[in-house]
Each structure stands twice: as structure tokens, then as C-alpha cells.
Task: structure prediction
Amino acid sequence: MSELFLHHIGGLQKYIPEALPLFAPNVNSFRRFLPDTSAPVNVEWGLENRTVGLRVPDSDPQNRRVENRLPGADANPYLAIAASLLCGYVGMVDEIKPGKPVTGRGYEERNMRLPVTLEAALETMEQSQMLTRFLGNRFPRAYVGVKRAEHENYKRIISSWEREFLLLTV
Result:
């Protein structure tokens, strides 16, 4: 693996937490991030390891790539790909070294380094100097604003689970 490739991984590790709402855009997105499920729960990387967020499949040098396994099916694919490329690009420009690759189960790595709720992810994105540096202030601010408005609407709805299980105990 070239230094440039490793710096790309380093950028993904460092900046994905700041761009996480582009990979996990709503409350349900964060329900996937549970240890010991099929979804990755961290920004660790490993060779041919499906338990980490950043997987490098076994391949010959001309086909080498890193798979960002964090976006869910609810993510906008254009935004997720653009954010992934940006994080990796900044890693290459700033020559960010990645952590050591994980061997074995990535779920054992307890250093998630990811916001665990949509609210925390939006706050992290809002404070991202990297996103502002490369995207300007308007896009991150507008995206966070829209997602906060959606989340406020979500919080006003009483779910069927709440009606079934909590109403009886009140």
C-alpha cells in the first residue's frame, strides 16, 4: 500500500466523524450502529475485515481500494460518495497517518470515535473546520439546519411503540 493510499485512510478516519450526517442522515440511521451487528460501529480499518468501518478488500495493487462501510441505505449516495472522497482527499493533502489496521473483530475496538446520536453528529458537523474549509460555510450550515428541522418534527410524533408500551405505565 502506498503512502498516499494510507493517508487517504487516515483522512477517512479523522474526518468521517465530522461528516457523519452525510452517511447517516436521520434518527433511524443511528439504530444500525450497534456492536455485534452487521453494521460497522467505528472508523477503524482492516484488510479483508468486515467488522470495521473501513475495509480494504484483498486485491492486486492496481485494484486496491478502501470501502467506506458506514453509509446506510438511507444516505444520499451522491453526498456519501462526495463526503468520502473529500475526507480521503484531505487526508492525502495533509498527510494524515492512519491507525493500525484491525485484525480480528473490529467490534472489540471500543474507540468508536463516532457520534452516537443524530444530535451529536449534527453538532460535530456544525463545528467542522475541515468541511467549512473545503465546502464553505453555506452547505454545512444549510444541511445541519434542514436535518435539525426534520429532527424537531420527528420528536413531536408519538410512535406506536411509545403508545403501546409507555402509555400503559403513565
In short: The beta strands are 45-47, 54-56, 67-68. The radius of gyration is 17 Å. The chain is about 45% helix and 5% strand. The chain has a mean pLDDT of 89.
